[in-house]
Amino acid sequence: MPDLPRHPFDPLDGDRLREECGVFGVIGPPDAASFVALGLHALQHRGQEAGGIITHEARTGFHAAHRFGLVRDNFTKASLIDSLPGSLGIGHVRYSTAGSKGGTQIRDVQPFFGEFTMGGAAIAHNGNITNANALRRELIERGSIFQSNSDSECIIHLMARSIQRTIPERMKDALRRVEGAFSIVAMTRTKLIGVRDALGVRPLVLGRLGDVWVLSSETCALDIIGAELVREVEPGEMVVIENGEVQSHRPFEARRPRFCIFEHVYFSRPDSILGGRSVYETRRAIGVELAKEAPVEADLVCAVPDSGTPAAIGFSQASGIPFAMGIIRNQYMGRTFIEPTEQIRNMGVRLKLNVNRALIRGKRVVLVDDSVVRGTTSLKIKEMILDAGAAEVHFRIASPPTAWPCFYGVDTPDRDKLLAANMTADEMRVHLGVDSIRFISLDGLYRAVGEAQGRDASEPQYCDACFSGDYPVRPTDMISAGRIRLREDA
Ligand SMILES: O=P(O)(O)OC[C@H]1O[C@H](OP(=O)(O)OP(=O)(O)O)[C@H](O)[C@@H]1O
Ligand SMILES: NC(=O)CC[C@H](N)C(=O)O
Ligand code: SF4
Ligand SMILES: [Mg+2]
């Protein structure tokens, strides 16, 4: 096989734990694009890098718009929405896991579109294809001409090579060759399609508003348009919606689902419902569990906003230590992820979070955050809290140590940049210069998400690879590229 030039894929090349992507689709309303724009706005926390919408109108065909930046800055303009007519549309908000990361190019922004003999189709993908490099190499050798660097584009080319006569059948063919995680919202001229991989790693829900059907990464985007949650698209299921009817298909071999446990901890919005459970309630329960596992004598419990807040409330309720807003977040500051250098990144934390000095002075403070990835946030927060005159600082973290990268749609740094991959909890305490740091146990986290017996080690109920190193799908591209050595191969 000739050696193809190395693609600029670098799925391990991030700085911190970033979001993933959000997908949304709607069939039925006369102005699908407005619904999709609202849905994407509600899913903005899943990706702030770029967004795109594709619609279809019977008279004029497919229409597309792809833009960098936030939904509110792009998809609220009447002129843009008017250029996306039709009653069927899908959209995507992106945080890249592959392709031109950091310096994203517009051609990597989804949804992707393909023209087939039976008509056009568009797809929007949340997740990451773990054999994308191998597939891409094979497809290029067989004549495919790739337009982007995105892993997701493989799906379109695999569909093009399928001999099936309908788009849903071609999608099934394509997705049977794909490994990794995918929650996909797709459309043809007449159909809205939703698919989840057999393990159901990433979320996808089905909603309804009268005759209008909706597919969305999270339920918070159903709420924004007043749609009701019908059910989750099940792991391994494909739903095809046409003429007001929902058909269910099972294209993949059944497996025990392994939903991403980090969706409960951090990614999803607290007002979403996952697996029938309120994300807020789960996070609060994690805080309760954490207070039982790692009690401490202190005067105040403070959250590292935003995502640490529900767990901090739970910790306070279970421990009886008053909750207080010791750290205030500037709501107008974007996320810290775009800053390229260490210096600016550190500044980013300060721009976003500030200490409520009068409250903190002389107090023993418990700081609750959802996760420690690189440790940038914890280090800065500790400095700020001590600067403000805190008597003691105790970190309580609402997830186990993040010691392994994610290959399923979340952009995590290389293993050597993950604090927990290189230090024990006690070394972290010294490194961060705090009085104590404790993480919830993996079993404690499982209990908080509703698994009373904790983690089933022989058949874990969730994907928890970033904590355990137990990868439910072998990240073959990364292993071949020498980018990761799995525990079992060590
Ligand atoms: O150890 P680090 O590398 O600093 O990463 C961990 C931090 O990153 C996330 O917050 P983020 O600032 O991304 O957003 P949030 O406002 O949603 O909590 C997470 O909630 C932690 O606070
Ligand atoms: N975070 C994601 O789900 C990203 C989807 C896709 N892998 C991309 O890079 O665009
Ligand atoms: S590795 Fe972690 S973040 Fe990635 S899917 Fe698994 S649990 Fe979620
Ligand atoms: Mg945070």
UniProtKB/TrEMBL annotation:
Q: Where does Mg(2+) bind?
A: 307, 369-370
Domain Glutamine amidotransferase type-2 span(s) in chain numbering: 21-244
**UniProtKB keywords:** 4Fe-4S, Glutamine amidotransferase, Glycosyltransferase, Iron, Iron-sulfur, Magnesium, Metal-binding, Purine biosynthesis, Transferase
Q: Mind telling me which InterPro entries this protein's record contains?
A: GATase_2_dom (IPR017932), Ntn_hydrolases_N (IPR029055), PRTase-like (IPR029057), PRTase_dom (IPR000836), PurF (IPR005854), PurF_N (IPR035584)
Show the catalytic activity: 5-phospho-beta-D-ribosylamine + L-glutamate + diphosphate = 5-phospho-alpha-D-ribose 1-diphosphate + L-glutamine + H2O
UniProt pathway annotation: Purine metabolism; IMP biosynthesis via de novo pathway; N(1)-(5-phospho-D-ribosyl)glycinamide from 5-phospho-alpha-D-ribose 1-diphosphate: step 1/2
Q: How is the cofactor bound?
A: Binds 1 [4Fe-4S] cluster per subunit. Binds 1 Mg(2+) ion per subunit.
- Give the positions the UniProt entry annotates as the active site: 21 (nucleophile)
Q: Name one GO molecular function term.
A: amidophosphoribosyltransferase activity
| Entry keyword Acyltransferase | no
EC number(s): the record gives: 2.4.2.14
Give GO BP annotations, semicolon-separated.
'de novo' IMP biosynthetic process; purine nucleobase biosynthetic process
Positions in coiled-coil regions: none
Q: Name one Pfam family in it.
A: GATase_7
Q: Which residues bind [4Fe-4S] cluster?
A: 260, 406, 463, 466
Concerning NCBIfam families, the annotation shows:
purF
**Main function:** Catalyzes the formation of phosphoribosylamine from phosphoribosylpyrophosphate (PRPP) and glutamine.
> What name appears for this protein in its UniProt entry?
Amidophosphoribosyltransferase
From which organism does this entry originate? Rhodobaculum claviforme
Name of the gene this protein is made from? purF
